[in-house]
Target: Chitin-binding type-2 domain-containing protein
Amino acid sequence: MFRRLLIAVVVTLAARGTVANPCEGRPDGLFVNDFTACDAFFSCFRGEAIPGVCPVGFVFNEDAQLCDFPWNVKCLLCPADSADSPTPTLEPIQGECSFYTLCFQGVGALRECADGLLFDATAGICDLAENVDCDLGICPSNLNPNIPTFLPNPADCSRYFICIGGMAEEAQCAPTLLFNPDTRRCDLEENVECIEGSIPAPTTCPPTGLHYLGNPVDCVSYFVCLNGVQSDASIECAAGLIFDVTISACAIPNDASRCADGSDPSLVPAPEPTNPPVPEPTIPPVPEPTIPPVPEPTIPPVPEPTIPPVPEPTIPPVPEPTIPPMPEPTIPPVPEPTIPPVPEPTIPPVPEATIPPVPETPIED
Model:
């Protein structure tokens, strides 16, 4: 498992424009997003925002409060003039087709298009998938290619994709299970919100947080509220979509959809297309740039390093090798060989041969 590098606060005191203080009312030691760069952040100290940047190759992760690998973070970027604009803008996120950044008063918020819609970076709206040219494929380019990532299949809640090495392989959950995008695993049906349920939507701008209010005049636009301040202009949904207050997003109308006034969007007549007049371009006067004073950086005192004394190495005496005396070799006497006497051979006496007498045989007449 990869180890995440904890935040290395590299303070870079530089002028960053007239953005509202993001640390106002926040506790000390908190790190917050700087929406001008993916690796930039602010460190809150005594109500002041101290800018900093992550080490090279890392981006800031506000949720985890650390500098993280790029594939773990959706980088939210807002235009430089977002802080001074009364109109919210929708900005694309690199490597994403269904997520986008909503920028208002210099603050970015992560948003996701409704099911079946993709974010059109050119038009700045969520639109039907067939109307959006998003060639990122199923697997986003910012995923770690060496670690499998499980992504939901927007067309089927019981199926999901496994991304590894930039390639996607579709898989099927076991029967009676659905893929849970929050836990990224197959789960029981009661634990998975396959279809968004009815969520009460605010009708007035709440005093804190980021909210989206449907336009009561029509059913196809909405306003953005940030900390009690409502945007001057409304944002229109793409053609064929309505702003569904049950999910606080532009979506394809269905039986559960509702407009800001609580009416059924199927009963709302389609507005006649109108071509608004194009005003003559006016070039506003460019004020002289004012450079805010840059406070002198305060560097905490660094104590002098103390080097403990290194004792002289002591070499123990090596005793002289002792060779034990070797005894003189002794050769045992070799006895003279003894030859046993060989006895003289004895020849037994041979008895004289005796010839038996032959009896006389009478001769007959």
